[in-house]
Every structure is written in structure tokens, then in C-alpha cells.
Amino acid sequence: MNSKEEQTNSEVTNLENESSIEKQEDVNYINKQNAEIKLDEKSIDFEDAYKFGWSNYSEITNGRFAMIGFLAIILIELFSQQSFLKWAGIL
């Protein structure tokens, strides 16, 4: 064999080694993602179930409506150029 053939063979071997390392890293990354997805699916199933009373679902829903209400008060004060209490006729 001449030196060019040996060099190309060694380059091919290096590329194969690098690709196998990348594949192993990809497999590990995919396995980690699958584990995270499985955990997320379990938590989604648990949290999305509506229960009457003090539950995680109720607290999230109430918090979202409170944020919408607070934003509405801020927008009313910005557009009307007066306080919300005065705009509502309370003061």
C-alpha cells in the first residue's frame, strides 16, 4: 500500500469512529428526552384532571383569571386617564 491509501484508510476509520461517537451521544440525548417526555406526560395526566374544591387545576384557573382581571384594571386606568375606583364610581 502506498502512503495515500493508508492516509485515506485512516481518515475513513477516524470518520467512522467520530460518527459512532456522535450516534452514541445522540442515543443518550434521545433517551434523556424520552424520559423527560414520559415524566411530562404523567404530570399532565395528573394535573389536567378536574376535581371539585382546592386542587391544582382550580388554583391555576383562578390565578389566570386574576391575571386577566388585573390586566383589565391596568388597561382601564391607562385609557380613561383616571383611577379604576373613580372610573367604577366607588370614589
Automatic annotation (TrEMBL):
<feature type="transmembrane region" description="Helical">
    <location>
        <begin position="65"/>
        <end position="85"/>
    </location>
</feature>
<dbReference type="InterPro" id="IPR022796">
    <property type="entry name" value="Chloroa_b-bind"/>
</dbReference>
<feature type="compositionally biased region" description="Polar residues">
    <location>
        <begin position="8"/>
        <end position="18"/>
    </location>
</feature>
<protein>
    <submittedName>
        <fullName>Putative high light inducible protein</fullName>
    </submittedName>
</protein>
<keyword id="KW-0472">Membrane</keyword>
<dbReference type="Pfam" id="PF00504">
    <property type="entry name" value="Chloroa_b-bind"/>
</dbReference>
<feature type="region of interest" description="Disordered">
    <location>
        <begin position="1"/>
        <end position="26"/>
    </location>
</feature>
<keyword id="KW-1133">Transmembrane helix</keyword>
<keyword id="KW-0812">Transmembrane</keyword>
